[in-house]
Structure formats: C-alpha cells, structure tokens
C-alpha cells in the first residue's frame, strides 16, 4: 500500500525558508517520478515541482522556479522540497504525490 506523509510546514515570514519532507512507503521513491503540488484557499491543486524516475531530472512551475528545489534521499525513501525566499502567495497546503496517490498535506503560511 502506498503511503505518503508530509511534514515540515509552518508559519514563516516573507523571505524566509522552509524544507518540506515526504516519507514514502509501499514503493521505492528513488526510482519513481514524484511531484509536489499545493492548494491555496479557494483554489485548485497546482503542480509545483517534479522529479523524474531514472536520472532524477527536475522541473518547476514558473511561479517557484529559482526559489524551490525538489530532491530525494534514496536511503530514507524520502522526498524533499526546499523553499527559499517565500512569498505570501506561496501560502497553501503542500502535498507530495506519486501516481494517483497523495498524502494529507502540510500547511505552509507565509505572513508577517
């Protein structure tokens, strides 16, 4: 059974940083394509970052490019999202996804 558990969210001031984690089980994250997505209040789910299976190449939504970095720790079967220079518009619940599965999410609030 695929399980994804996100953590690391919180309240941060504009310009601050957070690192989100996603502990995966039931599959091997190191060889799987995975994504981070987010949902802001009153809005739909937005794809944020992608890491490919195999070579682990990455891609990002334009809104976060240059500020967010997706990575994984193969030994821990864990996906990460390093978020720098956070902006109020980054406020959302963040989810990691694998195929059609996603976790319960972790809340990120950017506010002064």
Topology record:
Blueprint lengths: L2 E5 L2 E3 L5 E8 L8 E6 L5 E7 L6 E3 L7 E6 L4 E6 L8 E7 L2 E2 L3 E5 L2
Parallel strand pairs: 2-11
Antiparallel strand pairs: 1-3, 3-8, 4-5, 4-9, 5-6, 7-8, 9-10, 9-11
What does this 3D model show about the protein?
This protein has 112 residues and is mainly beta. The chain is built from no helices and eleven strands. The protein has strands at 3-7, 10-12, 18-25, 34-39, 45-51, 58-60, 68-73, 78-83, 92-98, 101-102, 106-110. The strands form two sheets. Strands 2, 4, 5, 6, 9, 10 and 11 form a seven-stranded mixed sheet that branches. A four-stranded antiparallel sheet has the order 1-3-8-7, with no helix packed on it. It is globular and about 40 Å long. 28% of the residues are buried. The mean pLDDT is 94.
Mean pLDDT: 94
Beta-strand percentage? over 45%
* DSSP helix fraction: under 10%
Total number of beta strands: 11
Largest sheet: 7 strands, mixed
Distance N terminus to C terminus?
40 Å
Number of helices: 0
Radius of gyration: 13 Å
Please summarize what this structure is.
This protein is mainly beta and 112 residues long. It has strands at residues 3-7, 10-12, 18-25, 34-39, 45-51, 58-60, 68-73, 78-83, 92-98, 101-102, 106-110.
Summary tags:
single chain; 112 residues; mainly beta; 7-stranded mixed beta sheet; 4-stranded antiparallel beta sheet; 0% helix
């Amino acid at each position: 059974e695929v399980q994804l558990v996100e953590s690391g969210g919180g309240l941060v001031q504009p310009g601050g940083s957070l690192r989100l984690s996603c502990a995966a089980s039931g599959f091997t994250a190191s060889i799987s394509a995975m994504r981070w997505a987010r949902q802001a209040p009153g809005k739909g789910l937005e794809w944020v970052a992608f890491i490919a299976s195999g070579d682990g190449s990455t891609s990002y939504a334009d809104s976060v490019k240059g500020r967010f970095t997706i990575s994984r720790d193969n030994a821990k079967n864990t996906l990460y999202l390093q978020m720098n220079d956070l902006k109020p518009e980054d406020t959302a619940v963040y989810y990691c996804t694998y195929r059609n599965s996603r976790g319960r999410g972790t809340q990120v609030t950017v506010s002064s």
